[in-house]
Each structure stands twice: as structure tokens, then as C-alpha cells.
Design goal:
This protein is 35% helix and 22% strand. It has 461 residues and is an alpha/beta fold. It folds into 2 domains: 5-350, Glycosidases (TIM Barrel, Alpha-Beta Barrel); 389-459, Immunoglobulin-like (Sandwich), CATH 2.60.40.3080. The strands form 4 sheets. Strands 8-7-6-3-2-1-10-9 form an 8-stranded parallel β-sheet. It has a 4-stranded antiparallel β-sheet with strand order 13-12-15-16, with no helix packed on it.
């Protein structure tokens, strides 16, 4: 298998155990968009691939707003079902020997893969969405009681028929902020508020009823999450309810009616997977920090890493996985299980970062408490650094602090800090211009309180 030069360097570091491996039980999950594994008709091969490379859970897309990969009594059956058989059963049978948890993923509301006859039927019955200008879209309207029943009962059909570890919501939202303004939404909104929306739909979209309508719209999505949670737990108390959600809150509540923080607060979710799809390590880190703050430790947050979207190299994936460990999320979720992931990503992760047989090293906390601290300068992370790194300075009192970075010859490369800092823990990011710093070994040196501390840093370009 060919590999990029950075991939080869990282593999060597894995073999020397320079890079961190998890020191706790970690959920290593992956979404499977097609719902048939990498090799359609051979779920056993995909399950073996995941297990061999240290993954613990798979989220296969087995149903949508108008399609099912199993013999559903409620939704049209897919071509994959007709060709390869019951994909939920095949997936479960393949994953069970490896101890892989299967969380069945449903694309809610969206009719992208539904037979045209089903879409036409839904539209004729007034069950699809319209935007503020009256244009149709192939999504079921969340406020329609028949649609909510179909969504709920199709997910409960899975719980009733199969011994799955979890149910997973996706597209649990509106398409964008211009939906839905169908006639049914108007009637149901007016009934909800007990008064007419006379200048429909403009008052609700951008006028005096804007805030009230956005609240009502979010409530339609939340009601489905609550109903599925309550009914699924009644059928199988140990089942885990999770959702793939937009990464930025509360923007997603305003734009697409996805009030996922309230779902966490009300106990409707057991796990949440924000889709933190970015190729920027700093942006990824900031998103995870924000999401952990919103969740407040109520449930696990397993950040989504966008291997397929926006598209990441193995080096970039490694950096983002390490960030989830630095922030102690307890797990991560990769998108997507396809041939690229199978051949270019998972085998490299399995050689070190997710190696099931790897011995552990200590995973650092993101910002340590100064109480009981024995060093002022924290270890840089990630290390090796792929173009940026972070480090902490932990001070017992206000001090003049200088941190400089030297190469192995003793040449000064940068001075990230030269200032007076108050007592407490401080986080700094060093991200020099691209190509300004060559690959190699560097030394961070802190001078404060009449003493000097150093940390080694490996820089990769």
C-alpha cells in the first residue's frame, strides 16, 4: 500500500509509540452512508476491517424518509435490499463476532433516495415541504402528524425487529431557513398560537412573527426526537439514542430548527455526534471546546471527523483524533466508511492510533489546574505538530513570562510569549506561516520565577 511521506513518518512515530494512544476505553465509531459496507454483499469483510483497526462501533444508514434497506412494512424497500437482502440483519450478523456495536442511522424527512412514485404520492397528499416562495422540495414536512408518525414508527420498527445497540438521527432538521411554509404549516401554526398569521408567510419568515414561528418550527423537530426516545426506551431500556448535528449552536436552531442542546438538556439523547467537518485543526479544536461546554458533561460528545467531507489526509485525521483525546471526549466518529477510508485511512490508524493491542500512555488534559502543578510549562500538543501546536502556562501568581522556541543548533526561531501574565492556567497556540518552520526537533524554553523549563517539540511539514 502506497503512503505519503507524512504518512510514513507518522507510522514510524507510531511504531516508537511517540504518538499518544488512548489510555481509557474509547468509542471509535464510523458512519456508513451507503448502508452496505465497503463491499456490497459482504458485510463480513467490512466488519473485520473495522475490528482489525480498533474501531468499536458502526452507524450504517439503513433507512431514510422514503427508503429502507430491510423488509420494512412502512417504507419502500431499496435496490440494495432487493439485491443483497436485509442489510440490518447482515450487518448485525457480521459485527457481532467482533463485538462491534451497531447504531442504525436514519436520514429523517429527506426523500433523496425514495422511489419517484412514493415522492409523488407524498406531494399529492400535501405532505412535502414548500419554501417561503411556494416551491416544492423532496422533504417530508415535520409538522404533518402523518409524517411524524411515519418517521417515529419506522425507527421503532428497527428497535422491535433487531437487537441494535442504538438508533441514530440524521437530517433531523429543516433544509434551511426558508422552510417550511406549506399550507399545512400555516394551519397548524395558527392552531398552535390560537390566532391567524394574516400576512402569511412573510410575517413568519421575516416579520413580526419571526421569533414565534422559529420557536414553533424547532418544536416540530424536537417532538419527534422526544417521541422516538420515549418509545424506544420503553421497548428496550438499554438502547442508545444519538444524533448527528450541526456543529454551531445556536445558529442551527435559528437556521434549520435543530435545537440539539435542548435535546441534551431534556435527556432525549444518550450520545451526540457534531459534524465538525473542517480541515483546520484550530477550527476543529474550537468547535469541540464549544460543544463540550454546551453539553456540560451530561452525555458523551463524539466529534465527527470529515474524512470524506471536506476530505482529509491520514495526517489530518490523526491530528483531529488526538484533539478529541486532548479534550477528553471519550471518542470520535469518522465520516465515511468507503473505499478511500478502507484503503488510505483505517489501516494507518490501526498501525498505532487505534491499534487494539497498543500500550497506553498518558493523555493530557486540555488545561491543567494550577493546584498541585509541578511545572509551569505544559507539554505541547499535538506533538508531533502538523503546522501548529498548543501549550499551557500554569502560574501560581502574576509573573513576567518569556517562552522562546529554538532549533537543535540553538538558533532562536520564535518568541510566542514575552509578557506579564496573571495567576492561573493560560493556553497559547503557535501557528507560524506555512513553510516558515522546517520539519525537525525544536525546544520550547520558558523563563519565569528565576528558573528555566524546557519541552521538546517535533515539527512536521
Amino acid at each position: 500500500m502506497a503512503a505519503s511521506a507524512p504518512g510514513v513518518r507518522l507510522l514510524k512515530l507510531f511504531q516508537r509509540r511517540v504518538l499518544l494512544v488512548a489510555d481509557v476505553v474509547e468509542t471509535r465509531a464510523i458512519w456508513d452512508h451507503d448502508g452496505t459496507g465497503v463491499w456490497p454483499g459482504d458485510w463480513g469483510r467490512s466488519a473485520a476491517l473495522l475490528a482489525e483497526n480498533g474501531f468499536t462501533a458502526v452507524l450504517p444508514n439503513m433507512l431514510s424518509g422514503g427508503m429502507a434497506h430491510y423488509p420494512s412494512n412502512l417504507l419502500p424497500r431499496s435496490d440494495a435490499y432487493d439485491t443483497y437482502g436485509d442489510q440490518i440483519a447482515e450487518c448485525l450478523n457480521a459485527c457481532a463476532p467482533h463485538g462491534l456495536a451497531v447504531h442504525v442511522w436514519k436520514v429523517n424527512w429527506y426523500l433523496y433516495d425514495a422511489p419517484q412514485g412514493f415522492v409523488s404520492q407524498m406531494r399529492a397528499e400535501g405532505r412535502t415541504q414548500k419554501d417561503v416562495w411556494g416551491r416544492d422540495v423532496d422533504w417530508l414536512c415535520p409538522s404533518n402528524p402523518l409524517n411524524r408518525e411515519l418517521e417515529r414508527e419506522s425507527m421503532l420498527e428497527v428497535v422491535t425487529w433487531y437487537n441494535v445497540a442504538g438508533l441514530h438521527f440524521d437530517y433531523i432538521r429543516y433544509p434551511n431557513d426558508t422552510y417550511c411554509y406549506c399550507d399545512g404549516c400555516r394551519a397548524r401554526f395558527e392552531a398552535y398560537r390560537g390566532a391567524p398569521a394574516s400576512n402569511w408567510p412573510l410575517d413568519c419568515y421575516s416579520g413580526t412573527l419571526h421569533d414565534e414561528y422559529r420557536d414553533w418550527r424547532a418544536l416540530q423537530i424536537t417532538q419527534l426526537v422526544q417521541e422516538v426516545h420515549d418509545a424506544a426506551k420503553a421497548l428496550k431500556p438499554g438502547i442508545l439514542i444519538s444524533a448527528a448535528v450541526f456543529p454551531t449552536y445556536p445558529d442551527c436552531r435559528e437556521q434549520v430548527g435543530q435545537d440539539w442542546v435542548s435535546w441534551v438538556e431534556h435527556g432525549y439523547l444518550d450520545l451526540v455526534m457534531p459534524m465538525d467537518y473542517t480541515n483546520s485543526p484550530a477550527a476543529f479544536a474550537d468547535l469541540v471546546t464549544s460543544q463540550l461546554a454546551y453539553v456540560g458533561g451530561r452525555i458523551p460528545v463524539y466529534p465527527g471527523i470529515g474524512v470524506s467531507s471536506p476530505g482529509l489526509s491520514v495526517d489530518q485525521v490523526i491530528v483531529q483524533v488526538l484533539e478529541t483525546r486532548a479534550q477528553a471526549t471519550g471518542g470520535f466518529t469518522i465520516f465515511n466508511l468507503n473505499m478511500t477510508a478502507a484503503t488510505e485511512i483505517l489501516p494507518w490508524l490501526g498501525r498505532g492510533l487505534t491499534d487494539p493491542g497498543a500500550t497506553s500512555s498518558v493523555t493530557p488534559a486540555p488545561i491543567p489546574s494550577r493546584h498541585g502543578a509541578t511545572r509551569l510549562l505544559g507539554a505541547p500538543f499535538p506533538n508531533p505538530a502538523p503546522g501548529w501546536t498548543r501549550f499551557n502556562v500554569d502560574l501560581p501568581r502574576e509573573l513576567q513570562v518569556r517562552v522562546r522556541i529554538f532549533d537543535v543548533s540553538g538558533r532562536l526561531v520564535a518568541t510566542p510569549i514575552d509578557q506579564t501574565l496573571p495567576a492561573g492556567a493560560h493556553r497559547f497556540t503557535w501557528s507560524p506561516p506555512r513553510h516558515a518552520v522546517a520539519s525537525g526537533v525544536y525546544v520550547l524554553r520558558l523563563e519565569a520565577l528565576g528558573c528555566t523549563e524546557t519541552r521538546k517539540l517535533v515539527w512536521l511539514r
